[in-house]
Specification:
The complex is a heterotrimer.
Chain A (H helix, E strand, L loop, with lengths): L1 H4 L6 H8 L3 H23 L4 H17 L1 H14 L3 E5 L2 H14 L4 E4 L3 H5 L2 H7 L3 E4 L2 H9 L15 H12 L8 H18 L2 E4 L3 E3 L5 E5 L3 H8 L2 E7 L3 E2 L4 H13 L7 E5 L7 E7 L3 H5 L15 H5 L1 H6 L10 H11 L16 H5 L6 H14 L5 H14 L2 H5 L6 H6 L10 H5 L10 H8 L2
Parallel strand pairs in A: 1-10, 2-3, 2-4, 4-7, 5-8, 7-10
Antiparallel strand pairs in A: 5-6, 6-9
Helix pairs in contact in A: 3-13, 4-13, 10-11, 17-19
Chain B lengths: L2 H12 L10 H16 L31 H11 L2 E6 L6 H9 L3 E4 L9 E2 L12 E7 L2 E3 L4 E5 H4 L4 H4 L2 E7 L3 E2 L2 H11 L13 H5 L13 E5 L4 E2 L7 E2 L6 E7 L2
Parallel strand pairs in B: 1-12, 2-3, 2-4, 4-7, 5-8, 7-12
Antiparallel strand pairs in B: 5-6, 6-9, 10-11
Chain C lengths: L6 E4 L3 H6 L1 H13 L3 E3 L9 H8 L4 H10 L5 E4 L2 H10 L6 H10 E3 H8 L12 E5 L2 H6 L15 H6 L6 E2 L15 H4 L1 H17 L4 E4 L2 H13 L5 E4 H5 L4
Parallel strand pairs in C: 1-2, 1-3, 3-4, 5-6, 5-7, 7-8
Helix pairs in contact in C: 5-6, 11-12
Classes of the chains: A alpha/beta, B alpha/beta, C alpha/beta.
The structure holds iron/sulfur cluster.
């Protein structure tokens, strides 16, 4: 689904332009997410020690990255002692095969899943579908996009791009709700009833993991809906999938991260449920799949390692003025927005070469990030890497080189003729014609008679 | 080579020079100071003044911070109510009986672990199939303690009887004592760790890679609870156009009974 | 105000030199009024940011050398653009004159931070009887901390705001979103034309909604983008660089 959802080769700029065809909808999308950003601001301001909290969280994560192999071993040993089966997957494919193996062993062809960005990253749903296994996403937002045959457009608010009337119509088709009913409580209740049947009937549940504690071998799953718990506690087999970077050393570190996560994500003081899974209940099987999928590669880079601190709160998306006006799907990858734009190129430079350029480098993302990832600095650095590695269109390369040539030669710059002429010729965005993207919706600056350099020469001899 | 060894080798090669863990005590002290300031503020005071800014602000400058006010109990109650919970203060557990009977009058199945309510509730069928809880209308359980900064209550599986119960029930009621409140999550984990500590000595944060990785007696007892959760209000979702709906998959309502000592 | 014995080099961004010379003139006159000796080295061209932000930082050696040589041995370098200042502060280096480049990196100031932090300006002889909205350009704000960022839980301040409050007759308007990006973003403004324009339209609308008749800021590039949008909409609202307002006498 998400692999085939986007036309091959579609770029952020093209997808964003399509999204902008409907300005009223862009306004609605922007304002909805800005409202979430404002809720986040209010919650952050209720904690006067907020910046110290962020700094501490960042330092804990940096420490984890410096000792990750040791913590992984400690976690594995402790989880095993707790009666949990630990699996290791080097990449998405191995992760999917491990999950499928467990399902096969139990003869299961339908199961419930709560939100896990890792399984989105690994395209687990599509893989299992090909193997004849039906995955029912139980997070309401994820269920909505799943019924619609779309990937989530946001990592915390998966169907933030859907209007309630459209969801009403979708539910009318799939759940048999009355046509024209778009009342959120009504629709939520209809989904509750439908999904409760699934929870009660399914023997295997997959959940994501927000945090895992090396010291105790436990893992924490945070939801507002309670769907992870409903799935896990009613299942015979609970499979928890996590990236290897999710570890924290000690239990009290959860105090730091649980204070930050939901305040940053939705502007709530904490999620309704922060469940600490340590041991399976009697008679239940519990599995943990530890997934690398490019993370150890990212860890080796001084410039990009910091992206592994991410706790997937989505604050950087909600604040991003580009994300709000281009929609999550314009990023054509499982994790959209600023963080997605620094993660995706690590997985596939060619396919995601456009994403680090889908930003004005305004830096708001880095400021809201609860673990202080220097997102906008990494966007800048990815640009350098992608250009050097040859992933930027030839036309763009030539125009930048021409511009640079003029700017590197004061003689050319000064005597390029009439004011602005060289500029219009060499600055790629300032060509005064209809083909010029600048001029499409913006007027050009008024030409002046004299450059400042010329004025200075005349007036300050 | 197994995938495990491949991953561990790759990580070992990639991880940067060892860094020590940060000291949490300045943060805990700051959180304590926030709580102390809140308690010192008269609960009746209106919106707190913004902390003085260093220089003249622009016309639209937001206030620098808007810290909480009131006692621990007041903050807990206000926060929990803001996230959809109902708070009742009682002096005896028997006061809950009429409330239970109201639920029963609506035909609801009511389960409780509290012996004081055994006359009007069904005991939790510990060890039975969680699927049998499908029709529970109300579950009344004890929690360990509440957290003022977020309205959450910490509850472990021994208090749930069956792990699924607090999630599958239509309505959840948790009982804690008014003295069982902490100000913030740092205090919450101090309390959990203390309750679950193993008899061996407590270990300090490691300062070197060797210390960090030398196996020591675990701080947390292996016999400690296999499942625990913070519950903050009823189950909720805002996935449809950000409009808040209570009762997504779990309880539609959540009541907390604060028992005055 | 103790500009007396300071020798300051004026760095003029390339697009200001070509399209908005009045901004550079205002900057020069304002600094001179405050008693600063200003020189304008004629061999300067550009800070190199247009290339670097497009991923071509490796091409900026030429610009770097020009800047380093042009501004050798000055007390301070002042630039009426937060974005160019930030770029030089973070990225200027020179293979031939490494210590001169270091010196410039430590001594380059954006105009308003120079006025507030170095000259400690407390009073200005300026008059601008209009309703003015301030656009906080991102690089000046989040990069140089010209004013507090709304994302942070930290004390509020604004250097441009402090200076504008010294201007007689000037009324600052409040905005709904005090520090949202306008969408210029260098080559972003053409590479992502649709989003760039939408961001610019939304920013402009915020100022119009609150009755601004002028939009000002410390970066002419953002103002050029918003001016393009205002003109296309035939709006009477104008953009003016903060140097022009601060230099506007009665
Ligand atoms: S990068 Fe930071 S702000 Fe963005 S999702 Fe990750 S933790 Fe949240």
């Amino acid at each position: 689904m998400s692999e085939s959802f986007w036309a091959p080769g579609a770029t952020h700029a093209e997808l964003a332009e399509a999204f902008n065809q409907n300005e009223a909808r862009v306004n609605w999308h922007d304002e909805t997410l800005w409202w979430v950003r404002q809720k986040r601001d209010r919650m952050a301001r209720s904690v006067p020690e907020w910046e110290l909290l962020r700094e501490t969280a960042s330092q804990i994560k940096e420490q984890v990255l410096s000792s990750l192999s040791e913590y992984l071993e400690q976690f594995e040993a402790q989880a095993t002692l707790n009666g949990v089966q630990v699996h290791w997957a080097t990449d998405a494919d191995e992760h999917n095969r491990i999950v499928h193996g467990i399902l096969k062993e139990h003869g299961v062809d339908r199961m419930v899943k709560s939100k896990s960005m890792l399984t989105e990253e690994c395209h687990l749903n599509e893989y299992l579908k090909e193997q004849g296994i039906d995955v029912v996403d139980t997070d309401l937002g994820e269920r909505i996009v799943q019924l619609a045959g779309e990937p989530p457009s946001h990592i915390v608010l998966p169907c933030i791009h859907w209007k309630k009337e459209e969801i009403g119509e979708l539910f009318h088709q799939h759940l048999g709700t009355p046509k024209g009913n778009a009342d959120p409580p009504f629709l939520t209740h209809a989904a509750r009833l439908a999904l409760r049947k699934e929870f009660l009937a399914r023997r295997v549940a997959i959940t994501g993991v927000n945090f895992a504690i090396a010291e105790t071998g436990e893992f924490v799953v945070c939801t507002n809906e309670g769907n992870a718990d409903m799935g896990a506690h009613l299942s015979d087999v609970h499979i928890a999938c996590m990236g290897i970077e999710k570890l924290l050393p000690l239990r009290e570190h959860l105090g730091v991260f649980l204070r930050l996560l939901t305040r940053s994500a939705t502007g709530q003081p904490i999620t309704t449920y922060s469940s600490h899974f340590r041991k399976p209940r009697p008679g239940q099987q519990m599995h943990i799949v530890l997934v690398d999928n490019g993370r150890s590669q990212q860890l080796s880079s001084d410039d990009f390692r910091g992206s592994l601190k991410c706790i997937r709160c989505a604050a950087c998306m909600n604040t991003c003025p580009v994300y709000r006006r281009s929609g999550g799907h314009s990023y054509h990858t499982a994790i959209a927005g600023p963080i997605g734009s620094i993660l995706a190129p690590n997985l596939d430079r060619k396919q995601y070469a456009d994403l680090p350029f889908a930003s004005t480098l305004c830096g708001s993302c880095s400021n809201v990030c609860p673990v202080k990832i220097d997102i906008h600095v990494q966007l800048y650095k990815w640009r350098q890497v992608l250009v050097k590695d040859g992933y930027v269109a030839v036309g763009k390369k030539l125009s930048i080189e021409a511009m640079n040539y003029t700017l590197s030669h004061p003689g050319l710059y000064r005597f390029g003729g009439k004011v602005g002429r060289w500029f219009m010729r060499t600055m790629p965005w300032l060509v005064n014609n209809r083909l010029n993207p600048w001029y499409k919706q913006r007027d050009m600056p008024t030409p002046t008679k004299q450059s400042f350099g010329e004025w200075y020469k005349a007036n300050r001899p | 080579m197994s995938s495990r060894d491949k991953i561990l080798n790759a990580v070992r090669k990639a991880q940067p020079a060892f860094r020590p863990l940060p000291d949490l005590s300045p943060l805990v002290a700051a959180a304590n100071a926030t709580a102390a300031n809140a308690t010192a503020t008269a609960a009746t005071a209106s919106a707190p003044p913004a902390t003085a800014s260093a220089a003249p602000a622009t016309a639209s400058a937001p206030p620098f911070a808007n810290p909480p006010v009131g006692s621990t109990l007041e903050r807990f109650t206000r926060t929990l109510e803001a996230i959809g919970g109902k708070v009742h203060t009682i002096f005896h557990l028997q006061e809950m009986i009429s409330w239970v009977l109201e639920h029963r009058a609506r035909g609801q199945r009511v389960l409780s672990s509290l012996p004081e309510l055994s006359a009007v509730t069904e005991a939790i069928p510990v060890g039975s199939d969680p699927h049998d809880l499908e029709n529970v209308g109300l579950a009344i359980l004890r929690g360990h303690f509440g957290v003022a900064e977020n309205g959450a209550i910490w509850i472990t599986e021994d208090q749930m009887g069956i792990r699924a119960l607090p999630f599958i029930t239509e309505h959840l009621a948790l009982v804690i004592s008014t003295t069982d409140l902490v100000d913030h999550m740092h205090a919450a984990y101090q309390r959990i760790n203390k309750a679950e500590q193993s008899p061996t000595t407590r270990q300090q944060s490691p300062t070197t890679r060797e210390e960090a990785t030398t196996p020591t007696e675990p701080r947390i007892a292996q016999t400690a609870s296999g499942f625990g959760t913070f519950i903050a209000g009823p189950s909720k979702t805002a996935d449809i156009e950000q409009s808040l709906v209570l009762g997504a998959h779990g309880p539609m309502g959540m009541s907390v009974f604060l028992l005055q000592d | 105000m103790k500009g007396g014995n300071l020798k300051v080099g004026l760095f003029v961004p390339c697009y200001v030199d070509q399209f908005y010379p009045q901004v550079a003139i205002a900057t020069l006159q304002l600094l001179e009024k405050l008693g600063v000796e200003v020189v304008y080295p004629p061999t300067q061209t550009c800070c190199g940011q247009p290339m670097a932000n497009s991923g071509f930082a490796h091409l900026t050696g030429g610009c770097n050398e020009l800047v380093t040589r042009a501004f050798l041995g000055l007390d301070y370098i002042v630039c009426p653009s937060g974005s160019c200042t930030l770029h030089l502060k973070e990225h200027l280096h020179s293979d031939t004159l490494p210590s001169a480049a270091d010196h410039i990196r430590g001594r380059i100031y954006e105009l308003t931070e120079f006025l507030v932090d170095v000259l400690h300006v407390e009073k200005l002889d300026a008059y601008f009887p209009h309703k003015v909205g301030v656009h906080q350009s991102c690089h000046g704000q989040r990069g140089l901390h010209l004013s507090q960022m709304t994302e942070l839980v930290a004390p509020v301040f604004s250097k441009p705001g402090k200076l504008l409050n010294m201007v007689e007759g000037l009324e600052l308007v409040e905005l709904d979103r005090t520090d949202e990006c306008c969408g210029f973003g260098g080559t972003f403004c053409v590479a992502e034309e649709a989003v760039s324009v939408k961001m610019g339209k939304d920013r402009v609308a915020d100022h119009l909604k609150h009755g601004a008749t002028y939009i000002t800021g410390a970066d002419m590039s953002c103002l050029m983008h918003m001016e393009g949008i205002l003109r296309r909409a035939r709006s009477p609202v104008q953009v003016k660089h903060i140097a022009e307002i601060l230099n506007q006498a009665r």
